[in-house]
TrEMBL record:
The keyword Cell inner membrane appears for this protein: no
Protein name in the entry: NAD-dependent epimerase/dehydratase domain-containing protein
Family per similarity comment: Belongs to the NAD(P)-dependent epimerase/dehydratase family. Dihydroflavonol-4-reductase subfamily.
Keyword Lipid metabolism among record annotations: no
Originating organism: Punica granatum
SUPFAM superfamilies assigned: NAD(P)-binding Rossmann-fold domains
Gene Ontology molecular functions: oxidoreductase activity, acting on the CH-OH group of donors, NAD or NADP as acceptor
CDD domains: FR_SDR_e
Keyword set, alphabetical order: NADP, Oxidoreductase
Entry-linked Gene3D superfamilies: NAD(P)-binding Rossmann-like Domain
């Protein structure tokens, strides 16, 4: 197959964040190779209903731990957006195997397959999880792209998701430098927004639980704005390194106040205690270097809640 600039592989295509990336790429005229673990599973059915999907979206059965399956999906693609990673809503019985392995070994497989398939640019979806957990970072300074989560701290506190994302992102950026693969990382905060997929993903569950009175800690960003950031990171030749992608720094009590005005009938926590603080993370690099913009938080909240109601989640 001849490599085409506008042919891109998106891993874990049926997930919450990836579905918005696939939708945006299709709308911009791309041909998308989406990897899913089971193309016949109903949970991926929404992908084939996307506008322009017919003839432009091809689903490939692939697992992060199966190198050949990943390589087959990438053949002919100029770019890869690596999104797939376990983000469980409860800690699995064996997190090192069920979370770390696919996150880290899976990313290594992606990197090697990109080299073999002669992919030009890989956009790796990391997370602020790979940024914010540095206990030595000064409290009065916003965290930027120079801040990395401390892997020893993550391991000691058994934060397996954080550890996996930190390890995988650092491996991806380093591999890019050593092997001449153009790797750009996007580090989203907590991703809200309307749901397309029928499965309740981790961050959607957070907001659903919040309006039912649970405590959460977040740095919100809209999935549609994350998709925009991915497109910028893919298309802009000057994109380099990592980019924090967070729309809003907000205290949880302020989030509750905003939601109470929009939806007074939900039950919210009354007291947020001493743990409530603003996560000062800065997306200035993404805005200044790549021209990223993001929508108002109210729009994200309303569109999210309305889509949860429509899907019967609330
Ligand atoms: N949601 C957030 O707030 C947030 C914030 C920052 C970063 N992120 C990152 O964004 C990405 C997507 O998150 P999401 O919230 O959209 O999660 P999601 O809806 O749970 O999607 C995760 C995807 O990963 C796939 N996957 C998991 N293990 C796999 C494996 N071994 N082989 C192949 N595919 C595998 C899943 O495929 P199946 O459908 O087959 O299970 C699913 O498509 C992740 O990399 C996550 O770290 C998310």
């Amino acid at each position: 197959m001849v490599m085409e600039k506008k042919r891109v592989c998106v891993t874990g295509a049926g997930g919450f964040v990836a579905s918005w990336i696939v939708k945006l790429l299709l709308s911009k005229g791309y041909i998308v190779h989406g990897t899913v673990r089971d193309p016949s599973d109903e949970k991926n059915a929404h992908l084939n209903k996307l506008e322009r999907a017919r003839g432009n979206l091809k689903l490939f059965k692939a697992n992060l731990l199966d190198y050949d399956s990943l390589l087959s999906a990438m053949v002919g693609c100029a770019g890869v957006v690596h999104v797939a990673c376990p983000v469980p809503t409860t800690t699995p019985a064996n997190p090192e195997v069920e979370m770390l392995e696919p996150a880290v070994r899976g990313t290594l497989n992606i990197l090697k397959a990109c080299s073999e398939a002669k992919v030009k640019r890989l956009v790796y979806i990391s997370s602020t999880a790979a940024v914010i957990f540095d206990p030595k970072w000064p409290e009065d300074r916003a965290k930027d792209e120079t801040c990395w989560s401390d892997k020893e701290f993550c391991r000691a506190t058994e934060n397996w998701y954080l550890l996996g994302k930190t390890e995988a992102e650092s491996i991806a950026l380093e591999y890019g430098k050593q092997n001449g693969l153009d790797v750009v990382a996007i580090n989203p905060g907590t991703v809200f927004g309307p749901v397309m997929q029928p499965i309740l993903n981790w961050s959607t569950l957070l907001l659903v639980n919040f309006v039912k009175g649970e405590y959460i800690q977040i740095e919100p960003v809209d999935a549609r704005d994350v998709a925009d950031a991915v497109l910028l990171a893919y298309e802009k030749p000057e994109a380099k390194g990592r980019y924090i992608c967070v729309g809003h720094n907000i205290m949880i009590k302020d989030l509750a106040e905003k939601l109470k005005i929009l939806y007074p009938d939900f039950s919210y926590l009354e007291n947020f205690g001493e743990d409530d603080h603003e996560y000062w993370v800065s997306s200035e690099k993404l805005q200044k270097e790549l021209g990223w913009t993001y929508r108002p938080l109210e729009e994200t909240l309303v569109d999210s809640i309305e889509s949860y109601k429509e899907a019967g989640l609330l």
